[in-house]
Amino acid sequence: MLKGRLITTLTGVSYKYKGLPLTSLLVLPNGSPVFVTQNAASTLTQGVEFEATYRPVKGTTLRTSASYNDAHFQSFPIAQCYAGQTATTGCIPATPATATSSAIPAHQDLSGKPVYRAPQWVVTAGAVQELNVSSTFRLTVNADLRYTSSYYSGLNLNPVSLQRGFTTINAGARFATNDDRWALSLIGRNLTNRRYGTLGVDKPGGAGEVFTVAGEPRAVVLQAEMRF
Question: Which domain holds residue 33?
Answer without folding.
Answer: 6-226
